[in-house]
């Protein structure tokens, strides 16, 4: 399903990879180029999703089974695509989304060890087959990422090995889909990283 006129760009990476900063800088760049831009996120891009995000990230004592976690993430995504992403694409907007389907393959697949084919099927179902035009993977070492992260939510408190598996998962996804997923080092200065992102996105904007 790619019938709409807008563009979906997703940002991925481990904790502390600098996604939020880069999404803000990218939004400013796009708006300055005259594009109507929407920055959103998963989980938590809708009112329902905010509630799901609080369950997933918040409560330390809350025991969440990995399968329950997967359903909550896909429920958040289903609502987000239907309520926010598709309508914005139909209006011709550029959407910058902080995490999307690759996060589930990296975190629940590589991190938690859940079946990748199953996750891919759920991702297709939740998104109605909507694939981003570009995915920016901000790659950095677990040491650097965890040094920047607050270390407070359920995922940030996972082990070093968990985050290492997530990072390797993301790199594997990028290797398998190089046309869509562009890996950018997230270890340098924010403006230097942003220059690399703009270089990647420029052809996409020039085509419109
Ligand atoms: P963030 O918005 O700070 O990146 O936090 C979102 C957290 O949710 C992050 O730790 C990763 C986790 N997450 C998954 O485990 N799977 C997913 O599919 C998504 C979208 C997020």
Topology (SSEs and partners):
Elements (H helix, E strand, L loop, with lengths): L6 E6 L6 H14 L4 E5 L5 H12 L7 H25 L3 E5 L2 H11 L4 H12 L6 E6 L2 H7 L11 H17 L4 E5 L4 H17 L2
Parallel strand pairs: 1-3, 1-4, 2-3, 4-5
Thymidine-5'-phosphate binds next to helix 4.
Distance from N terminus to C terminus (CA atoms, Å) equals: 19 Å
- CATH H-level name... which superfamily? P-loop containing nucleotide triphosphate hydrolases
- Poorly predicted residue ranges: none
Name the bound molecules.
thymidine-5'-phosphate
What does the average pLDDT come to? 94
Q: What is the SS-derived class?
A: alpha/beta
Tally the structural domains. 1
- Outline: globular
**Main sheet specs:** 5 strands, parallel
Can you list the strand order of the major beta sheet?
A: 2-3-1-4-5
Q: Helix proportion of residues, in percent? A: 55-70%
Spell the H/E element sequence: EHEHHEHHEHHEH
The CATH topology turns out to be: Rossmann fold
Tally of contiguous helical segments: 8
Round the Cα radius of gyration to an integer and report it. 16 Å
- Work out the strand percent: 5-15%
| CATH architecture heading | 3-Layer(aba) Sandwich
Number of strands: 5
CATH class: Alpha Beta
